[in-house]
Amino acid sequence: MNASDPAGARRRRTRTVFDLPAWGLGAVTLTGFTGRWHWLLDLTSHFRWYYLLAALVWYALTSRRRSRLATAWLAIAVGVNAWAMLAYWLPAHRKADGGEPLAMVSLNVRAENPDKQRTLAYLRDRNADVVVLLEIDDAWATALRDLESVYPHRVVAPQPGLFGIAVLSRVPLEAPRVVEPGGGSTTVITGLTRGKQGCLLMAAHPLAPVSGAWAARRDAQLAAMGELAAGESRPVIVAGDLNATPWSHGFRALAGPRGLRDSAIGRGVQATWNARLWAPRIPIDHVLVSPEIGVQSRTVGPDVGSDHLPVEASLVVP
User: Fold this and answer.
1) How confident is the model over 75-101, as pLDDT tens digits?
2) Would you tell me which of 11, 203, 209, 287 could form a disulfide with 263, CB atoms 3.0–4.6 Å apart?
3) How many CB atoms within 10 Å of residue 2?
């Protein structure tokens, strides 16, 4: 058939070439929902806004060269990814009526960041009530002493690797403790004297999903934190570099039991990593709150020399 109709064969080959990206975008879009089955499948969930953008661009570029099946796959990629991110584009959750304000900053400082004074100057300028810092080693713990007059209440748990944590606060901390929920990495859990009954803060930096074993430990830690939040009578805040996007299996395991919501909802997809690259940049640094906590504002802060951008949230604790 090809010999008798070379032009038709070329058209079919061309159409196949233009169809393959459409099929691929549809496939990875659906694969992102299967993260509980394998850690590699879960990795595909992190890039939904890139899939959406790519599907829209490919739809426009190949309007006359793709097959109907490819069009269907592109429609799946556009529809499913837009639906998954819809909450971030809809109007923000209403602010809490009454209550006490609580300004927060969460930042992975990068242990190897040599410009520590730049980070300290940023924290002084933002003047938040509570600061959560990740990747705190001994050098960072020493540098943070410069903020003792600003943040008299603190838990600093340095580690030689990437999983030390510091919580610096203007408001008193109640019964702070350093734990490893679910057999994961270091997590600081502390009460905050804000609101009538106070609230609970969990500051965490789970392992990055760079292998099956690390992904399993991350998911176990996030699930254990979710159960801890569900059993808490006070309002709950979870902050840190969670190494998970809002569409990943581990994130859903954390948020689900208590109904924690991402403070970025209604304010757009606010990507924080990798700050050294324009793309791909994904939202893995978070401030999550239980339903009774209001969110006045939530944004991404400036580059302070880390490979992560800070998360800045203004909350209202009832």
Assistant:
1) 999 999 999 999 999 887 656 667 899
2) 287
3) 10
Picking from 201, 257, 190, 197, the residue whose alpha carbon sits closest to that of residue 233 is: 197
Rounded to whole angstroms, how far apart are CA atoms 6 and 21? 24
Please compute, for residue 133, the number of CA atoms within 13 A of its CA located in the half-sphere on the CB side. Answer: 31
pTM for this entry = 0.91
Contact 61, 80 (CB under 8 A): no
CA distance 16 to 8: 12
CATH number of 100-317: 3.60.10.10
**What is the Cα–Cα distance from 294 to 290, expressed in whole angstroms?**
9
On whether the CB atoms of residues 297 and 126 are closer than 8 A, the answer is no
What is the residue extent of each domain of the chain?
Answer: 6-86, 100-317
Task: Copy the structure tokens of residue 208.
Answer: 């990055």
Reply yes or no on whether the pLDDT at 164 is more than 50.
yes
Q: Kindly write down the DSSP assignment for every residue of 15-39, as one continuous string.
A: HHHHHHHHHHHHHHHHHGGGTTT-H
Report the distance separating Cα 171 and Cα 91, nearest Å.
Answer: 31
- 64/61 Cα distance (integer angstroms): 8
Structure tokens at 315: 């909350």
pLDDT at 203 over 50: yes
| SS3 of residue 312 by DSSP | strand
Q: What is the pLDDT of residue 1?
A: 47
- Residue 77 token pair: 């990629």
